[in-house]
C-alpha cells in the first residue's frame, strides 16, 4: 500500500519534471517555487511542533513507581543478593590502597568494559558493577560468569539494571567497598564511558588527601521536572527546586573514612533517582555537613581539541565511545611514555591553567 503510493507520487513528480524540462508549461515554475519556499518551511515547522506532542513519553514515571511503595535504601539493599564478585582482589594483600575504582556498567555495555580494560583499568584496582536486564536473565548470567571468570573484575547484583536505579547501584558499590576493600583511602565512583588518567588521579588524591568527598562541583542547579530530561526528578521525590551544590556523578571520590557514615545516614534519607544529588548533596552535604571539595580535573566534560596535553591535564573526561576511549588513551600513553605531561605541557599548565575548561564541551 505504502509502496504503491510512493511509486505514484514519484511518477507524478517525474512527469512534472518532464513538463518543466520541456518548458511547454512555464507557469508550472511558479507553484513549484511557492511550494518550495513557503510550504516546505511551514510543513517542517508543523512537523516539529506535532512531533513534540506526539513523542511517546518515556516511561519514566512508571520506572520510578517502585519508589512510591518504599523509598528506604535499607529495604532495597537487604533484598539484593550479590550474584557474582571476584574471589580475590589486591585489597586482600595490600595494607595501603590509595584508590579502588568502581565503574557503573550494564550487561549490554561489553564494548565499553573492554575499552576500559584495555586502557586505564590496568593502573589501579578497577571493578564493574551491574545488575540484570530483561527476561533472558539466565543467558545473561551465563555470559557474566564467563566474563567474570576471564577478567575477574565483575560484580553482579540481582536487581534490575536501569538508569533510574543508579542510586541503588552506587549504594551497592559503597557496601561492596566496605566489605571487600575497607582499607582503601578513596573509592572512585565512575562510569564506563569515562576515560580516567590514572597518573593525574593519583596526583589529585595526593593533593587532597584529607578531603571527605572530591569531584566536580555543580552549583545552584535547577532540578528538571520534564520527563524528557535525562535528569528528570519528580516533585514527589524531591520538592526542593534547587540544589545548592553536588558532585557530578561522572566521577567522584569518597574518602574511605566516610563511606560507612554516608551509607548509614542514607538508610534514613528517602531515596531519589539522581544518585549524585542523593549521595553527595542530600546525604553527605546536607545531612552530614561534609564538605564537597571541587576539583576541575575530575571533569564531566571532554576536550574538543584532541591533544594529548589536554588528556594529561584531566583526571577524568566523560562521554567517550569505546573507540574514542582507545584512541584518546593511546595519545595519553605516548605522552606518559616520553616522560610525563608535566614538562611537555607547560603551555597548558601555565597559560590555560584554571581556564582549561574553555577547551571542553
Ligand atoms: C520500607 O521498608 C522498610 C525496611 O524493610 C520497612 O521498615 C518500612 O516499613 C517500609 N515502608 C513502607 C512504606 O512499606
Ligand atoms: C530497580 O530495582 C528494583 C529492585 O530490583 C526493582 O524493583 C525496580 O523495578 C527497578 N527499577 C527499574 C526502573 O527497573
Ligand atoms: C562551585 O563552587 C565552588 C565553591 O564552592 C567553586 O570552587 C567551583 O568552581 C564551582 N563550580 C563550578 C563548576 O564553577
Ligand atoms: C529540562 O529538560 C528538558 C528536556 O531535556 C529541557 O528542554 C529543559 O530546558 C530542562 N529544564 C531545565 C530547567 O533545565
Ligand atoms: C611527572 O614527572 C615529574 C618529574 O619526574 C615528577 O616530579 C612528577 O611527580 C610526575 N607527575 C606525575 C603526575 O606523575
Describe the protein's architecture and organization.
The chain has 361 residues and is of the alpha/beta class. It folds into three domains: 2-54; 63-294, Alpha-Beta Complex (Spore Coat Polysaccharide Biosynthesis Protein SpsA, Chain A), CATH 3.90.550; 308-359, no CATH class. 45% of the residues lie in helices and 17% in strands. The protein has helices at residues 2-22, 29-54, 60-63, 66-69, 73-77, 110-118, 137-151, 166-180, 198-207, 259-266, 275-287, 308-313, 322-337, 341-344, 346-352; strands at 82-84, 97-104, 126-132, 154-160, 184-191, 194-196, 213-215, 217-222, 242-247, 251-255, 292-294, 316-318. It has an eight-stranded mixed sheet with strand order 1-4-3-2-5-10-7-11, sandwiched between helices. α6 (110-118) runs parallel beside α13 (322-337) and α8 (166-180) packs across α11 (275-287). Residues 1-6 have low confidence and may be disordered. Bound molecules: 2-acetamido-2-deoxy-beta-D-glucopyranose (5 copies). One 2-acetamido-2-deoxy-beta-D-glucopyranose is lined by residues 217-219, 245, 294. Its main location: Golgi. The chain crosses the membrane at residues 27-47.
